[in-house]
Amino acid sequence: MQGRGFRQQRIWLLAGTGEGPQLAAALERHGWRVSVSVVTASAARAYAGFDLDQINVGALQGPEAITAELMAGSPFHCVVDATHPFACQISADLQRACAAADQPLLRFERALEGGKRGSLLNQWGDLERADVRGRRLFLAIGGRHLPMAHAVARAAGAEVFARCLPSATGLRLALAAGLSQGHLAVLRPLQGADPGAIERALCRRWGISTVLCRQSGGVTERLWRRISDELDLDLLLLRRPSPPAGVETVTCESDLLRCLSGSLSSPLKSTHD
């Protein structure tokens, strides 16, 4: 634990994955004052009981909104971008806003997963060259990408299936994708249920032969790697985007803490540098 003076240093953590609460807890244990931003109220519930400076709920609309947050209180020692690997827009907006404000910025990103199974796609259009014609394809990619992925997969000759969460947004996106009746499951995993039980059952029920998920790391990618191994499914992964140029990136909690602690005597460079 650092000294009392260190406790005055503020961190702004923008969290978009399940690692967010773990990172916030580690930062608090090491004496940082932490402000957290998440997109949804359900994500905010994971921080109940934390001794946070504040927690902000809602999407930040562009660099101007980020700049307003940077200017709203006492200065942040560092902004930590721990948003989802595929949340490219917010990461780009953070890079621009922090560079303009000379605000140090660190990117925390999950380490890449290993495994023998899995072919990488650089973009949705690569599905047309992935030999999915006649295949029963499960799109495990999140609701926002369903319309585009479904259109490309159908054009490539695949029979397409997907699952969505029982929320207004999830249903709207799934219906916009145009999935056939009986090819969409509207389900939320039961709390305490065996991880992957629903996904495994759907793959068996639908006779899935190929799964497409994102190379996002973490629990979801590991789950689909495990199910693909168990059921002998072909696994396709949409390649993870690169973080914005000029932003220092770490892939584990210890490296994040080391960068932040070491920067007390040697300040972090802003994204101008």
Rounded mean pLDDT score: 88
The strand line-up of the biggest sheet is 3-2-1-4-5-12
Low-confidence stretches: 1-7
Highest-level CATH class of the largest domain:
Alpha Beta
What is the CATH topology of the largest domain? Answer: Rossmann fold
Number of domains: 2
* Cα end-to-end separation: 30 Å
Oligomeric form: single chain
Number of helices: 9
Radius of gyration: 20 Å
Structural class designation = alpha/beta
Give the total of beta strands: 12
SSE string, helix = H, strand = E? Answer: EHEHEHEHEEEHEHEHEHEEH
Q: Largest sheet, described in full? A: 6 strands, parallel
Plain-language structure description:
The longest helix has 14 residues, at 218-231. The chain has helices at residues 20-29, 41-44, 62-71, 88-100, 146-155, 168-177, 197-206, 218-231, 253-262, and strands spanning 10-15, 33-38, 54-57, 78-82, 105-108, 119-121, 136-140, 159-164, 184-186, 210-214, 234-238, 248-250. It is elongated and about 60 Å long. Helix 3 (62-71) packs across helix 4 (88-100) and helix 5 (146-155) runs parallel beside helix 6. It has nine helices and twelve strands. It is of the alpha/beta class and 273 residues long. It folds into two domains: 6-111 and 242-262, Rossmann fold (3-Layer(aba) Sandwich), CATH 3.40.50.720; 119-238, Rossmann fold. The protein has a six-stranded parallel beta sheet with strand order 3-2-1-4-5-12, sandwiched between helices. The chain has a six-stranded parallel beta sheet with strand order 6-11-10-7-8-9, sandwiched between helices.
